[in-house]
Design brief:
With about 500 residues, the chain is an alpha/beta fold. It contains twelve helices and 17 strands. The protein has a five-stranded parallel β-sheet, sandwiched between helices. Strands 7-6-10-9-8 form a five-stranded antiparallel β-sheet, sandwiched between helices. The protein binds adenosine-5'-diphosphate. InterPro entries: CheY-like_superfamily, HATPase_C_sf, HATPase_dom, His_kinase_dom, HisK_dim/P_dom, HisK_dim/P_sf, PAC, PAS.
Length: about 500
């Protein structure tokens, strides 16, 4: 807006008309005092100031404007009829004016000047505004940087306080921070600790996970620099996301060496115990079978039924010991798989028959939903039967009130999937991943149902060795579906 200051209303009127004809917004004041009041209140892009005014003259008004930060940069054009002499013009410029126009006014010249100053001032204002907002942004960023720095320091302090080795990496996998414990196992910040020659390579494993943006969890032996001893650690590296992108990684090495030693001793004990139990049990079984044959002629005798019951219990004991032996084989990497092209459909059929016959006292109903597998698949028939028996006996055991079971097969170009569905007690969501762990039993069911928690562990190892997958879906109190897949080739 332009402010015209003149004590002569006719001058104001004609000037106002002239400027408004060119679409300039105009405000007016008829004295220096009024002009000052308005200029402090409103924003003007230009002031056209008459020099001859009663009270404060134009020069005084202009000098006063220079004293206020709000008004000091507003360009002023002086209008004067009288003071055309050089010294007056000079005073006009000294008092803060930008131009000096003498009356009678040449409207075209005045308009040209007004336009130039008006545009200049508008640009100045815009520049000033953007400078202010830039300054604000810089200030904001500086503050954010300071607060981020203090958050990072706090985070690093917390990592220092951890009993584990802790470290962070950027999104490219470059180490950005390590706590003091790191240096018990590595000489350099950028170098992962040395791992046992038989264990996996941390860099390779991490690179694989980094590409997928997935967390890494690894049991690994790393060398303690003071003792030279390789100690078992659980390495965990997790991505930290920001706006759905991996921003950096945070990792820990937790010392699990003592735990591992106890576990090893337990495994060794189980292995020895199950081996030692197996031999006398085989003899007992043989003697019982002989006795059974002797008594066969007399099926009605009480002794005969006792022997059958004893043989039944011996069979259960036998399978328990076999499971324990399997566990020790897995622990020692000695579980061997003997793959041959086999008829999976026949195996499923025979296994269901065996289950039905061995559970004559329970009224189970096993439905088959079949997808035809019209060629032989390479697998170890004894081991896959073991998996299926485990799924089916679990389905029966953990469904005390409903003995309907559905066995489904599904085939595509790459694999066959076999599922066993029951309508039993189900497994809570957060415990489902753990059921394939060694000796894991779901707390809620472990009191009511007998078991050792190793059947599914063995199943998962068998399927792993077949390069298949194993898993489940389950809903508490509605039932579970356990499945495994086998590659067709
Ligand atoms: P076990 O049955 O001898 O305890 P498993 O390894 O076969 O051992 O199973 C591990 C655990 O998984 C079981 O203790 C049980 O809690 C749970 N589980 C397995 N199958 C089922 C099922 N069909 N329904 C509900 N829970 C199951």
């Amino acid at each position: 807006m332009i402010l015209i200051v003149d004590d002569n209303q006719n001058n104001i009127y004609s000037l106002k008309k002239l400027l408004e004809s060119k679409d300039f917004p105009v405000d007016t004041a008829s004295s220096g005092e009024e002009a000052l009041g308005k200029a402090l209140k409103n924003d003007y892009a230009l002031i056209i100031l008459d020099v001859q005014m009663p009270g404060m003259d134009g020069f005084e008004v202009a000098e006063t404007f220079t004293g206020y930060s709000k008004t000091k940069d507003i360009p002023i054009i002086f209008l004067s009829a009288v003071n055309t002499e050089k010294q007056f013009i000079t005073r006009g410029y000294d008092s803060g004016g930008m131009d000096y126009v003498t009356k009678p006014i040449d409207p075209e010249i005045l308009l040209l000047k007004v336009k130039t100053f008006y545009n200049l001032q508008e640009n100045n204002i815009a520049l000033k505004k953007s400078q202010q907002s830039l300054e604000l942004e810089v200030k904001g960023r500086r503050e954010a940087q300071v607060s981020m720095r203090s958050e990072i320091d706090h985070f690093h302090l917390m990592l220092e306080a951890l009993p584990q080795i802790a470290f962070t990496l950027d999104q490219n996998g470059v180490v950005t921070f390590v706590n003091r414990k790191w240096f018990d196992y590595s000489t350099l910040e950028q170098k992962f600790p040395e791992t046992h020659p038989d264990d996996l390579d941390i860099n390779e494993e991490f690179e694989r996970c980094r590409k997928k943006g997935k967390a890494l969890e690894l049991e690994i032996r790393i060398k303690n620099l003071n003792s030279g001893e390789f100690r078992y650690h659980l390495l965990r590296m997790s991505p930290v996301h920001q706006n759905e992108k991996v921003k950096n990684w945070v990792g820990t090495f937790t010392d699990i060496d003592d735990q591992k030693k106890v576990e090893k001793e337990k495994d060794e004990f189980l292995s020895i115990a199950s081996h030692e139990l197996k031999t006398p049990l085989t003899s007992i079984k043989a003697y019982m079978q002989l006795l059974d044959r002797k008594l066969k002629n007399n099926l009605e005798s009480k002794e005969g039924t006792f022997v059958i019951k004893a043989l039944d219990q011996i069979e259960k004991l036998n399978s328990l010991i076999s499971d324990l032996l399997d566990v020790s084989k897995i622990d020692n990497g000695k579980l061997r798989i003997n793959k041959k092209p086999e008829d999976l459909e026949k195996l499923i059929h025979n296994t269901i028959d065996t289950i039905v016959q061995t559970h004559e006292n329970i009224n189970i109903k096993i439905d088959r939903h079949i997808a035809k597998i019209d060629h032989l698949i390479p697998f170890d028939a004894i081991r896959i039967e073991q998996v299926l028996i485990n799924f089916l006996t679990n389905a029966i055991k953990y469904s005390p009130d409903n003995h309907q079971i559905i066995v489904t097969t599904f085939v595509d170009e790459e694999e066959v999937k076999v599922s066993v569905t029951d309508f039993g007690i189900g497994i809570p969501d957060f415990k489902q991943d753990s059921v394939f762990r060694k000796f894991y039993r779901v707390e809620e069911s472990s009191v009511q149902f007998q078991g050792m928690g190793i059947g599914l562990y063995i199943c998962s190892e068998i399927i792993k060795q077949h390069h298949g997958t194993i898993g489940l879906s389950s809903k508490l109190e509605e039932g579970s579906t356990f499945y495994f897949t086998l590659p067709l080739n």
